[in-house]
Write a structure and sequence with these properties.
Blueprint lengths: L5 E5 L12 H16 L4 E8 L16 E8 L7 E4 L14 E9 L2 E8 H21 L7 H41 L8 E5 L5 H11 L6 E6 L4 E5 L6 H8 L6 E4 L3 E5 L4 H14 L1
Parallel strand pairs: 7-8
Antiparallel strand pairs: 1-6, 2-3, 3-4, 5-6, 8-9, 9-11, 10-11
């Protein structure tokens, strides 16, 4: 018995054909166990000095001890719901348990482990599940019978929206790649320019900006710095003649930055936005 649930490990040596304890089997066992509880069947403890004295009882498991045996029967001793040797503490009747709720079943070391709760704690779990169910019903304007259908329908709508957003995002990325390519080509005609070409995008994720920057590598003769102030991040790209990873490694830490990369692309992340401009300025001075 733990703070959050109880566990019971069982083996079914008498039924070797059962390889898996399914959830349907567990639910059926739970139903019959609760039927015994709700019938308030008596719990009868009987003591025997020897194994032979208890041999005629309808035991669920063979006796493993020879003397001083306590047998617990739930229900009619001649046709009990359960009859097993046990020296633990027991209620006077099954109804004192209140109810049993199985939470999970799994295979465990060649046996089956059942996670469950009983009595007040089982009711508390049911209450918490009911609160979650009520919240979901209200959110989806559903009842318990059609909640899953409405959730599935909403998920399909969400999936369609995600697909539309993905297509739109790819379109924006292509447009920005096209525009940035044209911008780089226009710079070829300008002789006096910075050693680092900068472009700023604050409305895209870093992974998308990496895709844009990598698409520019074949067109680069200088270092391209894509800035995202939303994440205080600078992405560096080059054709490999200038090692981007080394630029970050040698210079980012000066302005409390960190990051890394390889010769054609690298990333530097800063704690403050103001360090981005000083970092770019340092690179321009370093590469002139």
């Amino acid at each position: 018995m733990g703070e959050d649930y109880m566990t019971i490990d069982i083996s079914l040596e008498a039924m070797p054909e059962i390889k898996t304890l399914t959830w349907e089997m567990a639910k059926e066992a739970e139903y019959f166990a609760n039927q015994v509880i709700w019938s308030d069947a008596p719990v009868i403890m009987r003591h025997f000095k020897t194994q032979a004295e208890a041999a005629d009882l309808p035991l669920r498991k063979p006796l493993a001890i020879d003397e001083d045996i306590t047998i617990v029967c739930v229900g009619d001793v001649n046709n009990p719901a359960d009859c097993v040797a046990c020296c633990g503490t027991h209620p006077g009747s099954a109804g004192q348990v209140g109810l049993i709720k199985i939470l999970k079943v799994e295979n465990y070391k060649g046996m089956f482990r059942i996670y469950c709760e009983a009595g007040r704690r089982a009711m508390e779990i049911f209450d918490s599940y009911h609160e979650i169910l009520t919240t979901l019903n209200n959110k989806y304007s559903a009842g318990s019978k059609d909640l899953l259908d409405k959730m599935s329908g909403q998920e399909e709508k969400n999936k369609a929206v995600r697909n539309e957003l993905y297509v739109l995002k790819q379109s924006v990325i292509k447009e920005r790649i096209f525009a940035l390519t044209a911008y780089l080509e226009s710079l070829n005609a300008i002789s006096d320019q910075d050693a680092v070409i900068t472009k700023e995008y604050n409305d895209m994720k870093i992974d998308d900006l990496l895709n844009i920057g990598r698409a520019m590598i074949p067109y680069l003769t200088k270092v391209l710095a894509i800035i995202c102030r939303t994440d205080n991040t600078v992405l560096l790209f080059s054709n490999g003649k200038i090692d981007c990873g080394k630029l970050v490694k040698d210079n980012a830490a000066i302005y409390q930055g960190k990051g890394g990369g390889n010769n054609t692309s690298a990333r530097a992340i800063f704690s403050k936005d103001e360090f981005i401009d000083t970092f770019i300025d340092l690179l321009n001075k370093h590469l002139r």
